[in-house]
Write a structure and sequence with these properties.
- The longest helix is centred in the middle third of the chain and has 32 residues, at about 100-130.
- The chain is α+β, with helices and mostly antiparallel strands.
- It has nine helices and twelve strands.
- It starts with a helix and ends with a strand.
- The chain has a two-stranded parallel ribbon. It has a two-stranded antiparallel sheet with strand order 3-4.
- Helix 2 packs parallel to helix 5.
Length: about 270
């Protein structure tokens, strides 16, 4: 389930968004990733080898290791695709270096892939745990907007981030000094009883203040709207076909305190 559907759908969308607009790509190929270092990230995410031609089952994403001439040309020639926008962007008048670009790109890929695929898989688990809400959503697709946000809140695919306090302050009697390292537990904040009624319940009609599963302020997720769109489309189509799908065996989770990741999850599509 994870590799064939959750990972495949997330990888397909992000790969299409960031791929090289190569006019010579073979028929039926969705996207071509020309940067080998980025290809390695994709391969690791979906459990295939670094040299795999197709990144994941159900996708047609090819990895084409570039020649030095291709790399030079790509950095020299502006284009209309997302890669070119990153390569040729300027920060306070300074051109982006190759090193900074690759770091930004890897972050973009990891964030856009891990969070969405784990929101989908976590959403399937959550819907199975709350069958009344699953039935309500299947019968009322107009609730997909609020359901997408509720899935992110309940799953909290990114569990925490660390920040540095820039000034002395106090929160609920706890003194924090400038320079202190602070852990922000999104999974806890998204269940704050002072903000959410019945915070541990899953409610596809929830209209309370926004969750912080996408972060806040200058750290707010760049792809939040895309992630919500993917969740709406996936669950809208999935529940039409398999309204009673549920896990049917052991779920193998990622060993991480940072990502609420799922590595394997057998699913029974029809009860």
């Amino acid at each position: 389930m994870i590799r064939s559907i959750c990972a495949g759908s997330a990888l397909s969308i992000i790969a299409f968004a960031v791929s090289s607009k190569n006019p010579s790509k073979p028929p039926g190929v969705q996207a071509i990733i020309i940067f080998e270092s980025i290809a390695a990230v994709f391969a690791q995410q979906c459990g295939t080898s670094r040299g795999a031609k197709i990144v994941a089952p159900g996708t047609s994403v090819y990895f084409v290791p570039p020649t030095s001439n291709q790399m030079t040309a790509y950095f020299a020639r502006p284009g209309s695709d997302l890669i070119s926008m990153l390569v040729h962007s300027r920060i306070e008048g300074e051109a982006m270096t190759k090193e900074r670009y690759l770091g930004t790109f890897i972050l973009l890929i990891a964030a856009g892939n891990e969070t969405t695929r784990n929101s989908i898989s976590g959403g399937l688990i959550t819907l199975a745990a709350f069958p009344d809400q699953r039935k309500k959503l299947a019968e009322n697709p107009e609730l997909l907007d609020s359901a997408a946000g509720e899935i992110v809140r309940h799953v909290s695919p990114i569990l925490h981030m660390r920040r540095t306090a820039v000034a002395d302050t106090e929160i609920r009697g706890k003194k924090i000094r400038a320079g202190d390292k602070i852990i922000l537990w999104y999974s806890s904040a998204n269940r704050d009883e002072d903000v959410f009624a019945e915070p541990f319940a899953f409610d596809v009609t929830r209209t309370e203040p926004p969750h912080i599963g996408f972060g806040i302020g200058q750290h707010y997720c760049l792809g939040a709207r895309l992630a919500e769109l993917q969740l709406r489309i996936f669950f809208g189509e999935f529940l039409k076909r398999f309204p009673n799908a549920e896990p049917c065996g052991p779920i193998r989770r990622m060993r991480s305190n940072f990502v609420a990741g799922i590595k394997e999850m057998p699913v029974r599509l029809r009860a």
